[in-house]
Amino acid sequence: MARFHSPAVLLLVVLARHVAVAAPSDATLPSFAGILSKTEPAVVNIAVVGRVEEPGEPENMQDFLRRFFGEGGPRVRRSLGSGFVITPGGDIVTNNHVVQGADRIRVRTASGEEFDAKVIGTDEKTDLALVHVDASHPLPTLAFGDSDALQVGEWVVAIGNPFGLTQTATAGIVSAKGRFLGAGPYDDFIQTDASINPGNSGGPLIDGSGRVIGVNAAILSPGGGNVGIGFAIPSKLTEWVIGQLRDHGRVVRGWIGIAVQPVTQELARSFALPKPEGALVADVTKGGPADNAGVARGDVIVRWGDHAISSSRELPMLVAGTAPGTRVPVGVVREGRERTMEVTVGTLPSERAQATAPRGREETGVAQWGLALEPLPPAAARRLGVPGGVVVAGVASGSPADDAGLEPGDVIVQVNRHPVTSLVDVRRALGGNVRHALLLVRRGDTSVYVELTR
Question: Does residue 132 have an active-site annotation?
Answer without folding.
Answer: no
